[in-house]
Amino acid sequence: MDEADRAQMDMEQYSSVRKQQEESPKSTGYCLYCGEKLKNKNQRWCDKDCRDDWEREWKLRKKMSGQ
Ligand SMILES: [Zn+2]
What is the pTM of this model? Predict the structure, then answer.
C-alpha cells in the first residue's frame, strides 16, 4: 500500500465516521430535544415525543442546508 492508497483509506474512514455521527447523534446524558437530564446515559431523548419532534426538526434542518 502506498501513501496515496493510505490517504484514500483515511478519507473513507473519516467520512464514514462523520456520516455515522450525522445520522445518529451521540447520547450526552441529556435529552437532545428539551435538555432534560436522563437516567440512562445511552438514551438520547426523555420520551418518544421529544424524539419525534427532534427528528422532525432535524430532517427539516437537513433539507434546509441542502443535504
Ligand atoms: Zn425531552
Answer: 0.60
